[in-house]
Amino acid sequence: MAAAAAGACANAGPVVGIVMFQVIFAGLNIFYKLAMADGMDLRVLIAYRYFFASISLAPVAYFIERRNRTKVTWKVLGLSFLSSLCGGSMAQNLYIAGMKLTSATFASATTNLLPAITFILALLFRFERLAITTFSGQAKVAGTLLGVGGAMLLTFYKGVDITPWHSRVDLIATITQRKGGGGGGPHPAEGTNYAMGSLLCVGSSCFYALWLIVQAKLSSIFPFYYSNTALMCIMTTLQSTAFALCFDRDAAQWRLGLNIRLLSVAYAGVFGSAVALVLLALCVQRRGPLFASVFSPLMLLMVAVLSSLLLGEKLHLGTALGAVLIVMGLYAVIWGKGREAAAASEVAANGERHTGTGKEEEAGRQNGTAVRDYRVSNAV
Fold first, then answer.
1. Position 212 confidence tier, pLDDT thresholds 50, 70, 90
2. The overall pTM is greater than 0.90
3. How far are the Cα atoms of 102, 153, 176, 208 from residue 302, in angstroms, in the given order?
4. Can you give the residue ranges of every domain in the chain?
Protein backbone atom coordinates (compact mmCIF):
# COMPACT_ATOMS: atom_id res chain seq x y z
CA MET A 1 0.00 0.00 0.00
CA ALA A 2 2.79 2.41 0.93
CA ALA A 3 4.70 1.53 -2.23
CA ALA A 4 1.60 2.10 -4.35
CA ALA A 5 0.98 5.49 -2.71
CA ALA A 6 4.60 6.51 -3.25
CA GLY A 7 4.38 5.49 -6.90
CA ALA A 8 1.16 7.47 -7.35
CA CYS A 9 2.77 10.56 -5.82
CA ALA A 10 5.81 10.16 -8.05
CA ASN A 11 3.60 9.90 -11.14
CA ALA A 12 1.53 12.91 -10.07
CA GLY A 13 4.63 15.07 -9.63
CA PRO A 14 5.04 16.05 -13.31
CA VAL A 15 1.30 16.76 -13.60
CA VAL A 16 1.36 19.10 -10.60
CA GLY A 17 4.53 20.74 -11.88
CA ILE A 18 3.21 21.46 -15.35
CA VAL A 19 -0.11 22.77 -13.97
CA MET A 20 1.84 25.14 -11.71
CA PHE A 21 3.81 26.20 -14.78
CA GLN A 22 0.58 27.07 -16.61
CA VAL A 23 -0.76 29.01 -13.58
CA ILE A 24 2.44 31.09 -13.51
CA PHE A 25 2.24 31.79 -17.22
CA ALA A 26 -1.43 32.74 -16.95
CA GLY A 27 -0.43 35.36 -14.41
CA LEU A 28 2.38 36.43 -16.72
CA ASN A 29 -0.15 37.15 -19.49
CA ILE A 30 -2.10 39.35 -17.09
CA PHE A 31 1.04 41.32 -16.27
CA TYR A 32 1.84 41.59 -19.99
CA LYS A 33 -1.56 43.20 -20.55
CA LEU A 34 -1.04 45.59 -17.65
CA ALA A 35 2.44 46.54 -18.86
CA MET A 36 1.06 47.19 -22.35
CA ALA A 37 -1.65 49.42 -20.85
CA ASP A 38 1.12 51.37 -19.11
CA GLY A 39 2.87 51.89 -22.47
CA MET A 40 5.93 49.71 -21.85
CA ASP A 41 7.72 48.21 -24.85
CA LEU A 42 7.39 44.46 -24.35
CA ARG A 43 10.76 43.84 -26.01
CA VAL A 44 12.31 45.79 -23.14
CA LEU A 45 10.19 43.83 -20.67
CA ILE A 46 11.52 40.53 -22.05
CA ALA A 47 15.11 41.73 -21.73
CA TYR A 48 14.49 42.76 -18.11
CA ARG A 49 12.57 39.55 -17.50
CA TYR A 50 15.51 37.31 -18.25
CA PHE A 51 17.92 39.67 -16.50
CA PHE A 52 15.95 39.35 -13.26
CA ALA A 53 15.70 35.60 -13.82
CA SER A 54 19.47 35.35 -14.23
CA ILE A 55 20.37 37.24 -11.08
CA SER A 56 17.79 35.33 -9.03
CA LEU A 57 18.63 31.86 -10.31
CA ALA A 58 22.41 31.93 -10.88
CA PRO A 59 23.36 32.06 -7.14
CA VAL A 60 20.87 29.29 -6.37
CA ALA A 61 22.31 27.12 -9.13
CA TYR A 62 25.85 27.74 -7.95
CA PHE A 63 25.32 26.83 -4.30
CA ILE A 64 22.90 23.93 -4.76
CA GLU A 65 24.65 22.12 -7.60
CA ARG A 66 28.29 23.11 -7.21
CA ARG A 67 29.32 19.74 -5.73
CA ASN A 68 27.47 17.46 -8.11
CA ARG A 69 27.54 19.53 -11.27
CA THR A 70 29.70 18.15 -14.06
CA LYS A 71 31.92 20.28 -16.24
CA VAL A 72 30.15 22.61 -18.64
CA THR A 73 31.36 21.42 -22.03
CA TRP A 74 31.19 23.19 -25.37
CA LYS A 75 28.33 20.88 -26.34
CA VAL A 76 26.35 21.98 -23.29
CA LEU A 77 27.07 25.64 -24.05
CA GLY A 78 26.01 25.16 -27.66
CA LEU A 79 22.75 23.48 -26.71
CA SER A 80 22.13 26.17 -24.06
CA PHE A 81 22.66 28.89 -26.63
CA LEU A 82 20.30 27.14 -29.04
CA SER A 83 17.77 26.61 -26.25
CA SER A 84 17.82 30.29 -25.28
CA LEU A 85 17.62 31.38 -28.90
CA CYS A 86 14.58 29.17 -29.64
CA GLY A 87 12.62 29.29 -26.39
CA GLY A 88 13.65 32.72 -25.17
CA SER A 89 14.64 35.30 -27.75
CA MET A 90 12.96 34.06 -30.93
CA ALA A 91 9.76 32.60 -29.48
CA GLN A 92 9.03 35.53 -27.17
CA ASN A 93 9.88 38.34 -29.57
CA LEU A 94 8.11 36.76 -32.54
CA TYR A 95 5.03 36.31 -30.36
CA ILE A 96 5.06 39.96 -29.30
CA ALA A 97 5.61 41.17 -32.87
CA GLY A 98 2.70 39.05 -34.04
CA MET A 99 0.50 40.27 -31.20
CA LYS A 100 1.18 43.90 -32.14
CA LEU A 101 0.22 43.24 -35.77
CA THR A 102 -2.97 41.35 -34.86
CA SER A 103 -4.42 41.25 -31.35
CA ALA A 104 -3.67 39.63 -28.03
CA THR A 105 -6.58 37.21 -28.48
CA PHE A 106 -5.46 36.13 -31.92
CA ALA A 107 -1.85 35.66 -30.77
CA SER A 108 -2.94 33.64 -27.74
CA ALA A 109 -5.01 31.38 -29.98
CA THR A 110 -2.05 30.54 -32.21
CA THR A 111 -0.06 29.26 -29.22
CA ASN A 112 -2.46 26.33 -29.12
CA LEU A 113 -0.83 25.01 -32.26
CA LEU A 114 2.09 24.10 -29.99
CA PRO A 115 0.92 20.57 -29.03
CA ALA A 116 0.41 19.60 -32.68
CA ILE A 117 3.73 21.11 -33.77
CA THR A 118 5.59 19.53 -30.87
CA PHE A 119 3.96 16.16 -31.54
CA ILE A 120 5.17 16.24 -35.15
CA LEU A 121 8.67 17.36 -34.19
CA ALA A 122 8.84 14.80 -31.38
CA LEU A 123 7.99 12.10 -33.90
CA LEU A 124 10.67 13.34 -36.28
CA PHE A 125 13.29 13.44 -33.52
CA ARG A 126 12.03 10.09 -32.17
CA PHE A 127 11.18 11.39 -28.72
CA GLU A 128 7.65 10.04 -29.17
CA ARG A 129 6.15 7.01 -30.90
CA LEU A 130 2.95 7.38 -32.88
CA ALA A 131 1.80 3.77 -32.33
CA ILE A 132 -1.54 4.60 -33.93
CA THR A 133 -2.59 0.94 -33.77
CA THR A 134 -2.45 0.98 -29.96
CA PHE A 135 -5.01 2.50 -27.62
CA SER A 136 -2.34 4.69 -26.00
CA GLY A 137 -1.23 6.13 -29.34
CA GLN A 138 -4.82 6.81 -30.40
CA ALA A 139 -5.49 8.46 -27.05
CA LYS A 140 -2.49 10.79 -27.45
CA VAL A 141 -3.53 11.81 -30.97
CA ALA A 142 -7.18 12.30 -29.98
CA GLY A 143 -6.25 14.15 -26.80
CA THR A 144 -3.96 16.52 -28.65
CA LEU A 145 -6.65 17.29 -31.22
CA LEU A 146 -9.29 17.76 -28.51
CA GLY A 147 -7.03 20.12 -26.57
CA VAL A 148 -6.23 22.24 -29.60
CA GLY A 149 -9.87 22.26 -30.72
CA GLY A 150 -11.11 23.24 -27.27
CA ALA A 151 -8.60 26.06 -27.00
CA MET A 152 -9.54 27.37 -30.42
CA LEU A 153 -13.24 27.21 -29.53
CA LEU A 154 -12.56 29.02 -26.27
CA THR A 155 -10.78 31.81 -28.11
CA PHE A 156 -12.79 32.31 -31.31
CA TYR A 157 -16.34 31.52 -30.17
CA LYS A 158 -17.82 33.74 -27.48
CA GLY A 159 -21.52 32.97 -27.30
CA VAL A 160 -23.76 34.34 -24.59
CA ASP A 161 -22.49 35.85 -21.37
CA ILE A 162 -22.48 33.23 -18.60
CA THR A 163 -20.29 35.02 -16.07
CA PRO A 164 -21.17 33.56 -12.63
CA TRP A 165 -19.72 36.58 -10.86
CA HIS A 166 -19.69 40.32 -11.51
CA SER A 167 -16.36 41.78 -10.55
CA ARG A 168 -15.97 45.53 -10.40
CA VAL A 169 -12.19 45.32 -10.58
CA ASP A 170 -10.68 46.64 -13.82
CA LEU A 171 -6.94 47.14 -13.47
CA ILE A 172 -6.45 48.21 -17.09
CA ALA A 173 -9.00 51.01 -16.71
CA THR A 174 -7.31 52.10 -13.50
CA ILE A 175 -3.88 52.28 -15.16
CA THR A 176 -5.30 54.10 -18.18
CA GLN A 177 -6.99 56.70 -15.99
CA ARG A 178 -3.78 57.31 -14.07
CA LYS A 179 -1.96 57.89 -17.35
CA GLY A 180 -4.48 60.53 -18.37
CA GLY A 181 -7.06 58.84 -20.51
CA GLY A 182 -5.00 56.11 -22.11
CA GLY A 183 -2.00 58.02 -23.40
CA GLY A 184 0.85 55.69 -24.15
CA GLY A 185 -1.35 52.58 -24.10
CA PRO A 186 -1.59 50.09 -26.94
CA HIS A 187 -3.74 50.85 -29.97
CA PRO A 188 -4.75 47.58 -31.63
CA ALA A 189 -6.20 49.25 -34.70
CA GLU A 190 -2.86 50.81 -35.67
CA GLY A 191 -0.57 48.85 -37.97
CA THR A 192 -2.84 45.80 -38.29
CA ASN A 193 -1.57 43.08 -40.63
CA TYR A 194 -3.15 39.71 -39.93
CA ALA A 195 -1.23 37.90 -42.67
CA MET A 196 2.19 38.86 -41.35
CA GLY A 197 1.04 38.71 -37.73
CA SER A 198 -0.28 35.17 -38.04
CA LEU A 199 2.97 34.11 -39.73
CA LEU A 200 4.99 35.56 -36.85
CA CYS A 201 2.79 33.89 -34.23
CA VAL A 202 3.00 30.51 -35.94
CA GLY A 203 6.75 30.99 -36.18
CA SER A 204 6.83 31.65 -32.45
CA SER A 205 5.05 28.36 -31.78
CA CYS A 206 7.50 26.52 -34.04
CA PHE A 207 10.49 27.95 -32.19
CA TYR A 208 8.90 27.12 -28.85
CA ALA A 209 8.31 23.53 -29.99
CA LEU A 210 11.94 23.32 -31.10
CA TRP A 211 12.95 24.59 -27.68
CA LEU A 212 11.08 21.74 -25.99
CA ILE A 213 12.98 19.25 -28.16
CA VAL A 214 16.35 20.92 -27.50
CA GLN A 215 15.57 21.12 -23.78
CA ALA A 216 14.89 17.39 -23.66
CA LYS A 217 18.28 16.71 -25.28
CA LEU A 218 20.07 19.19 -23.01
CA SER A 219 18.48 17.71 -19.89
CA SER A 220 19.68 14.24 -20.87
CA ILE A 221 23.35 15.26 -21.05
CA PHE A 222 23.31 18.03 -18.41
CA PRO A 223 20.61 17.07 -15.87
CA PHE A 224 21.22 19.96 -13.49
CA TYR A 225 17.99 21.89 -13.59
CA TYR A 226 19.07 25.08 -11.83
CA SER A 227 22.32 25.41 -13.76
CA ASN A 228 20.54 24.48 -16.97
CA THR A 229 17.93 27.17 -16.53
CA ALA A 230 20.46 29.76 -15.32
CA LEU A 231 22.56 29.26 -18.45
CA MET A 232 19.52 29.71 -20.64
CA CYS A 233 18.42 32.87 -18.82
CA ILE A 234 21.88 34.46 -19.01
CA MET A 235 22.18 33.80 -22.73
CA THR A 236 18.62 34.96 -23.38
CA THR A 237 19.34 38.18 -21.47
CA LEU A 238 22.23 39.01 -23.79
CA GLN A 239 20.27 38.07 -26.91
CA SER A 240 17.08 39.90 -25.89
CA THR A 241 18.93 43.03 -24.75
CA ALA A 242 20.74 43.28 -28.07
CA PHE A 243 17.47 42.78 -29.93
CA ALA A 244 15.59 45.38 -27.85
CA LEU A 245 18.33 47.97 -28.28
CA CYS A 246 18.05 47.60 -32.04
CA PHE A 247 14.45 48.89 -31.88
CA ASP A 248 14.17 51.04 -28.76
CA ARG A 249 17.01 53.09 -27.30
CA ASP A 250 14.76 55.53 -25.46
CA ALA A 251 16.06 55.78 -21.89
CA ALA A 252 12.51 56.33 -20.60
CA GLN A 253 11.51 52.84 -21.77
CA TRP A 254 14.42 51.27 -19.87
CA ARG A 255 13.85 53.25 -16.67
CA LEU A 256 12.04 51.35 -13.90
CA GLY A 257 10.18 52.88 -10.99
CA LEU A 258 7.88 51.77 -8.21
CA ASN A 259 5.02 51.03 -10.58
CA ILE A 260 3.39 48.27 -12.60
CA ARG A 261 6.44 48.04 -14.86
CA LEU A 262 8.75 47.00 -12.04
CA LEU A 263 6.13 44.60 -10.68
CA SER A 264 5.67 43.04 -14.12
CA VAL A 265 9.43 42.68 -14.63
CA ALA A 266 9.93 41.16 -11.18
CA TYR A 267 7.09 38.66 -11.63
CA ALA A 268 8.16 37.78 -15.16
CA GLY A 269 11.78 37.29 -14.14
CA VAL A 270 11.47 35.45 -10.85
CA PHE A 271 8.31 33.42 -11.45
CA GLY A 272 7.75 33.53 -15.20
CA SER A 273 11.32 32.49 -16.01
CA ALA A 274 13.32 31.23 -13.04
CA VAL A 275 10.66 29.17 -11.25
CA ALA A 276 8.59 28.25 -14.31
CA LEU A 277 11.51 27.10 -16.46
CA VAL A 278 12.88 24.88 -13.69
CA LEU A 279 9.45 23.27 -13.37
CA LEU A 280 9.23 22.78 -17.11
CA ALA A 281 12.75 21.34 -17.35
CA LEU A 282 11.89 18.79 -14.66
CA CYS A 283 8.69 17.79 -16.44
CA VAL A 284 10.36 17.51 -19.86
CA GLN A 285 13.16 15.40 -18.41
CA ARG A 286 10.76 12.99 -16.68
CA ARG A 287 7.84 12.75 -19.12
CA GLY A 288 9.02 14.08 -22.48
CA PRO A 289 8.28 17.20 -24.56
CA LEU A 290 4.79 16.19 -25.70
CA PHE A 291 3.57 15.78 -22.13
CA ALA A 292 4.68 19.34 -21.33
CA SER A 293 3.28 21.01 -24.44
CA VAL A 294 -0.16 19.37 -24.37
CA PHE A 295 -1.01 21.28 -21.17
CA SER A 296 -0.63 24.66 -22.90
CA PRO A 297 -4.40 25.07 -23.56
CA LEU A 298 -4.92 25.25 -19.80
CA MET A 299 -3.31 28.67 -19.84
CA LEU A 300 -6.10 30.13 -21.98
CA LEU A 301 -8.73 28.89 -19.55
CA MET A 302 -6.88 30.41 -16.60
CA VAL A 303 -6.31 33.68 -18.44
CA ALA A 304 -10.03 33.87 -19.23
CA VAL A 305 -10.93 33.45 -15.56
CA LEU A 306 -8.28 35.88 -14.29
CA SER A 307 -9.19 38.42 -16.96
CA SER A 308 -12.83 38.34 -15.89
CA LEU A 309 -11.89 38.81 -12.25
CA LEU A 310 -9.13 41.41 -12.61
CA LEU A 311 -9.50 43.07 -16.00
CA GLY A 312 -13.28 43.44 -16.28
CA GLU A 313 -13.69 40.89 -19.08
CA LYS A 314 -16.73 38.59 -19.42
CA LEU A 315 -16.96 34.81 -19.49
CA HIS A 316 -18.95 33.40 -22.40
CA LEU A 317 -20.45 30.10 -23.48
CA GLY A 318 -17.42 29.42 -25.69
CA THR A 319 -15.21 29.41 -22.61
CA ALA A 320 -17.26 26.68 -20.94
CA LEU A 321 -17.47 24.51 -24.07
CA GLY A 322 -13.78 24.94 -24.76
CA ALA A 323 -12.92 24.05 -21.18
CA VAL A 324 -14.82 20.75 -21.48
CA LEU A 325 -12.89 19.79 -24.61
CA ILE A 326 -9.58 20.82 -23.02
CA VAL A 327 -10.18 18.68 -19.94
CA MET A 328 -11.20 15.72 -22.09
CA GLY A 329 -8.08 16.09 -24.18
CA LEU A 330 -5.82 16.38 -21.15
CA TYR A 331 -7.23 13.23 -19.57
CA ALA A 332 -6.88 11.36 -22.87
CA VAL A 333 -3.21 12.29 -23.25
CA ILE A 334 -2.41 11.59 -19.61
CA TRP A 335 -4.09 8.20 -19.90
CA GLY A 336 -2.15 7.41 -23.07
CA LYS A 337 1.17 8.48 -21.56
CA GLY A 338 0.44 6.57 -18.37
CA ARG A 339 -0.38 3.40 -20.28
CA GLU A 340 2.83 3.73 -22.31
CA ALA A 341 4.89 4.29 -19.16
CA ALA A 342 3.34 1.22 -17.52
CA ALA A 343 4.05 -0.90 -20.58
CA ALA A 344 7.65 0.34 -20.73
CA SER A 345 8.17 -0.43 -17.04
CA GLU A 346 6.80 -3.94 -17.51
CA VAL A 347 9.11 -4.57 -20.47
CA ALA A 348 12.10 -3.26 -18.49
CA ALA A 349 11.22 -5.45 -15.50
CA ASN A 350 10.91 -8.52 -17.73
CA GLY A 351 14.28 -7.72 -19.32
CA GLU A 352 15.98 -7.44 -15.94
CA ARG A 353 14.38 -10.69 -14.83
CA HIS A 354 15.64 -12.51 -17.91
CA THR A 355 19.10 -10.98 -17.50
CA GLY A 356 19.26 -12.02 -13.88
CA THR A 357 18.13 -15.55 -14.73
CA GLY A 358 20.83 -15.88 -17.38
CA LYS A 359 23.55 -14.81 -14.96
CA GLU A 360 22.42 -17.29 -12.34
CA GLU A 361 22.30 -20.09 -14.92
CA GLU A 362 25.86 -19.34 -15.98
CA ALA A 363 26.99 -19.41 -12.36
CA GLY A 364 25.23 -22.75 -11.97
CA ARG A 365 27.11 -24.18 -14.91
CA GLN A 366 30.42 -22.99 -13.49
CA ASN A 367 29.70 -24.59 -10.13
CA GLY A 368 28.61 -27.87 -11.71
CA THR A 369 24.97 -27.52 -10.63
CA ALA A 370 22.12 -28.73 -12.75
CA VAL A 371 20.37 -26.03 -14.78
CA ARG A 372 17.19 -28.04 -14.85
CA ASP A 373 17.04 -28.16 -11.07
CA TYR A 374 17.58 -24.40 -10.93
CA ARG A 375 14.75 -23.73 -13.36
CA VAL A 376 12.37 -25.93 -11.44
CA SER A 377 13.22 -24.27 -8.13
CA ASN A 378 13.01 -20.83 -9.72
CA ALA A 379 9.58 -21.61 -11.17
CA VAL A 380 8.35 -22.75 -7.78
1. confident
2. no
3. 22, 15, 24, 20
4. 13-354
